[in-house]
Amino acid sequence: MSLSHAILTSLLEKPCTGAELARRFDKSLGHFWQATHQQIYRELGKLEAAALVEPQELPTTRGQQRLFTVLGAGRSELEGWCVREADPRPIRDELLVRMRAAAVLGTVDVTVEMRRHRGLHEATLARYLAIEAADFPAGAARSRPDELQRAVLLAGVAFEQAWLAWCDDALAELGARGAGPQG
């Protein structure tokens, strides 16, 4: 996936300025695809140069602001991207590399960091479940777009639940072997 496709998706949901896009991105697509505000602005420039989005100057008292909308070519690009094949991406997580390093070193106890990560995953799961309760109440009729958005959210829920189960199992295994680094 590329950041440009995430931005096109967000702008199709609602045209907005770069600043609004960055804030909205943090609250929605940012749960599954991270990008800094600087990366978002840089990508907006590329999309504009490729004639996939069009900015409209907005009058403002605080400098220049531009409202971005997706052009037909941008919509076509996103439609084509949606139907292309893509292979699953491998796990890329710093904690797992730290654990491998700790195994090689034999002198480092990473269980504190593992517990911290467990807490972060637990908080993220709680946030996803709150979003589900607020945006997709049980028994409510759903449109096709709502079903797709809920499916994405449920993937996040399943991901966090899997990480919590893994953390619990790994911490239990490490606890059974003793508290020391080489336990």
UniProtKB/TrEMBL annotation:
Domain (Transcription regulator PadR C-terminal) spans: 91-174
Highest taxon, organism lineage: Bacteria
Q: Does the keyword DNA-binding apply?
A: yes
Does the keyword section mention DNA-binding?
yes
Coiled coil, from the record: none
SUPFAM superfamilies attached to this UniProt entry: Winged helix' DNA-binding domain
Q: Which InterPro entries match?
A: Tscrpt_reg_PadR_C, Tscrpt_reg_PadR_N, WH-like_DNA-bd_sf, WH_DNA-bd_sf
Single Gene Ontology MF annotation? DNA binding
Keywords of this entry: DNA-binding
| PANTHER family per record | TRANSCRIPTIONAL REGULATOR YQJI, TRANSCRIPTIONAL REGULATORY PROTEIN
What name is this protein filed under? DNA-binding PadR family transcriptional regulator
Can you name the source organism? Arthrobacter stackebrandtii
